TrEMBL record:
Its EC number is 5.3.1.9. This is glucose-6-phosphate isomerase. GO terms for biological process: gluconeogenesis; glycolytic process. The keyword Isomerase applies. The lineage of its organism: Bacteria, Pseudomonadati, Pseudomonadota, Gammaproteobacteria, Enterobacterales.
């Protein structure tokens, strides 16, 4: 008997589209991001249904040793002068790391330890970002097109958004043709 050859899920590297697998899709809109942007008045005046980012994740068992694979598509835009960003999070199981791969667009990855030490890495097509354990992370789109990033992380990691209720230590704003990073 011939062994069956299975065609696994695929990612279109140029767009970040996932195919050939059971997908879970989620859209995060401005209404879902209260208290994320510095200019809260500008946030309140915007269309609450505007999509900020979409996430596609290949279904995977939630078990020790299992991995999730997903793509975040962070749209270009700003609230006031602050660039669109993901909510950002620690893992509920802090000892779990993650890897991001830049697929398209341009932006930044904001990383912050539990002690509040923050750093920023540039995200671009082909960039690889190893997010250490005990490190919160947030994508920020500083470009004019969608920023797509493929991520791989342990399915048991979970998300802890509450630990960042006061926000990250750094914020990124448009400044002329570039960016300005400000300490909070």
């Amino acid at each position: 008997m011939e062994p069956e050859i299975i065609l696994p899920p695929q990612v279109a590297w140029a767009t970040g589209a996932l195919a050939r697998g059971p997908l879970v899709r989620k859209t995060t809109r401005l209404a879902d991001l209260p208290c994320i942007f510095a200019n809260r008045e500008e946030w309140r005046c915007r269309d609450p249904q505007q999509s900020v980012y979409d996430v596609e994740v290949l279904e995977s068992p939630m078990a020790e040793g299992a991995l999730y694979v997903g793509v975040t598509h962070l749209h270009a835009g700003k609230v006031g002068d602050e660039f669109f960003m993901t909510r950002g999070h620690f893992h509920a199981r802090r000892e779990q790391g993650e890897v991001y791969f830049g697929l398209r667009g341009s932006g930044l990855l904001l990383l912050q330890t539990e002690a509040g030490d923050a750093r920023i890495e540039q995200v671009a097509t082909g960039s690889v970002h190893i997010i250490p354990p005990f490190t919160a992370h947030r994508l920020i789109n500083t470009g004019n097109e969608t920023l797509s990033s493929l991520a791989v992380w342990p399915s048991v990691a979970g998300h802890d958004y509450a630990a960042l209720a006061e926000g990250f230590a750094l914020r990124v704003f448009a400044a002329g043709q570039g960016v300005e990073v400000r300490h909070v």
